Amino acid sequence: MTEPSVRQPAVLVVGAGPTGLAAAHLLGSRGVPVLLVERNATTSNDAKAISLDDESLRTLQSADGLDEAVYPILVPGTGTRYFGVGGRPLVHARGTGDQRFGHPFKNPFAQPDLERVLREQLRRLPSVDVRFGTRLTGLVTQYPDRVGVSLRTGGEDGPVEELDVSYVLGCDGGRSTVRDLLSIPMQGRSFTDEVWLVVDTLHDTHDQRFGMHHGDPDRPVVIVPGQGGRCRYEFRLKPGECEAGSPPAFTLVRQLLQPYRETTPEQVERAVAYSFHALLAERLRDGRCFLLGDAAHMMPPFAGQGLNSGVRDAANLCWKIDEVLAGRAGDALLDTYDTERRPHARAVIDLSVRLGRIVMTTSRPRALLRDALVRAAMLTPPGRRYLTEMRYRPDTRVTSGAVVRGDGPGRELVGTMLPQPQVLHGAHHRLTRLDDLLGPGWSLLGIDVTDTDWTAVARTGLPDATPVDVSLDDRAPRERAGRVGIADADGRLDALFTGLTGSFVLVRPDRLVAAVFRPDQAAHVDAELRRFAARPLTATVPPQAATAATDPQVQHDSPGVHR
């Protein structure tokens, strides 16, 4: 495969796993010159990660509709079923069931297929250069405005290239070269005393669209059916059965699979014994270098969030780099990557550890107590919602960073991901996903506001975003010159913005709600966001532009709030 050659890269992405590929897409879709390097000759053939969640699919959607290319390799999932002692059903955890972020909640896939699709789709992006068989050998010097790096292509005798880039993204996995060169330690613990056997099989008869966690303390097992007869099995091993890192004997594999299927060696695609880690890098930023994915954090697999956490890293960071490179924001915005991502990464690691201890315990008394508590909780509506909707997952709310918290109506939305309902759009009431109308940059949603309100807000720097008129209470979309008009399609938009009539909702490019405010509070919000500006700001949209004619190209040019 011959990759395109592009101009001098602004960003070096190290590692072409799912996180690095996602970061290259997010940056490349914004026109940022990227060099993606991978030490291996091609993408991975190992089926490691196995679940892509609704947030990750939404992130791929934001990269020029990349989700459409990924859907054919997914099994649109319906969550996870948990079983207790003796195989008795406990609960089916499937989220809220309403595709809150516009995509199915939890979706099995094969990692080699995902990496292949993401790599192939990079051909669409002329600003991205991909080099396999190339590894980072040194971070020569970090300057105030660039980083000097050295790359080697081929083996130890291969040519070495030195170049300057604006930023380096370390997406190179748990044994990260970038992290080692920066001397950033990992903090936490490794569970070397717990060994699991992962077996990926072919020609399997499981056709369920949900994962299965069998919490029998005698042998905890995870089963995740995939596409085309693939199925993932994970078995908790007993002492002496196999050491982590050692190749398992086929006799052991066949013995463990026996209760579920007959198998031959040819039907075993992969069998690996491993122990897991619960680690978080001491810092996620060092000057102009950043850590993402497993280079930044590693966690047990029981919450299915390892890969998805890496995609969240990329979603949080890449738009910020674009804003800074374009001169719309200053370096302080990049500091919020660590501020915003570290607390959530820590919370997900802790959840993954707790789930392993509770769901996959080998203690029979603890397992029996777990089963009794789950069955009791399922008898009450609050308990049933807590378990079936997975409300035990950590709150993703950003409380410190590029957000403006208030104390008025809608404050509970600030710092959370904006849901993505289907909405009615335009004079013909076309049914459309919300994000497809917001564009790739900042967006400003006016909830049943007046033209006078838009004019008042236009006097600040905030209108430098895609303006969206939101009509509630079963009214048709309002078509106004210069603004996108949307209306409720199924009750979800009305429910989301109930009580916010006359307010504005400012949404970041990563679909996080940055602020909710009344027109007379716009100046305060603008002043708060100026902390991240590249230079003193003046209002760039005169009041009359609030009702100016629409230019579709300008609307979707990702202008950013800090121009």
Descriptive key words:
alpha+beta; 15 helices; 7-stranded mixed beta sheet; disordered N terminus; 26% helix
Indicate the topology.
Blueprint: E1 11-14, H1 18-28, E2 34-38, E3 51-53, H2 54-62, H3 67-70, E4 80-83, E5 89-93, E6 106-108, H4 111-121, E7 128-132, E8 134-142, E9 147-153, E10 160-165, E11 167-170, H5 177-181, E12 186-190, E13 196-201, E14 211-214, E15 221-225, E16 231-236, H6 250-257, E17 268-274, E18 277-281, E19 285-286, E20 289-291, E21 297-298, H7 306-325, H8 332-359, H9 364-377, H10 381-388, E22 422-425, E23 430-433, H11 435-438, E24 443-447, H12 451-458, E25 466-471, E26 484-488, H13 492-496, E27 504-507, E28 513-517, H14 522-529, H15 552-555
Parallel strand pairs: 1-2, 1-11, 2-7, 4-14, 11-20, 24-25, 25-26
Antiparallel strand pairs: 3-6, 4-5, 8-9, 9-10, 12-18, 13-16, 13-17, 14-15, 15-16, 18-21, 19-20, 22-23, 22-26, 24-27, 27-28
Helix pairs in contact: 1-4, 1-7, 7-8
The gist of it:
β1 (11-14), α1 and β2 (34-38) form a beta-alpha-beta unit. With 563 residues, the chain is of the alpha+beta class.
